[in-house]
């Protein structure tokens, strides 16, 4: 899930008013989907504490695991073609304060060798002159388009409802009792 998508999502529980922006909690210790005895991966465990090495685990306890044992990262950086026009056109649609706060909240959670590839630093505000500043537009492009949340949970700031993100896809489906 891109941070662009995150900036547009809000809690869809009928009982929840104003569930925006979601808090992102990166998931470095999720169990992969549908393994032996698994339940399809609907439940996610989040643990931000470093885990000691277990006897059955390989050296990467900080990554989510597929049933095959291949680690799945909590985030990815996927380079994308830079389009200044796209970024400029997105500016009026963004909740800027929410985007800056999200970047501020996510940066300390980044772990692993790919953490150095990520810069989620944005200024607290922007001006019309920033629309012409290529460095600003490239930084915003990186945050909105290239940074992908792969394994995490979204937490509603109002009701505390958690929505899992697995393989980069947020599951916003509600239980029957949450719809009415």
UniProtKB/TrEMBL annotation:
Biased composition (Low complexity) is annotated at: 53-64
Origin superkingdom: Eukaryota
Q: Which Pfam families match?
A: Trm112p
List the GO biological process terms: rRNA (guanine-N7)-methylation; tRNA methylation
Region described as Disordered: spans on this chain: 36-72
For this chain, the family text in UniProt reads: Belongs to the TRM112 family.
Query: In its UniProt entry, what is this protein called?
Result: Trm112p-like protein
Task: Write down the species.
Answer: Chromera velia CCMP2878
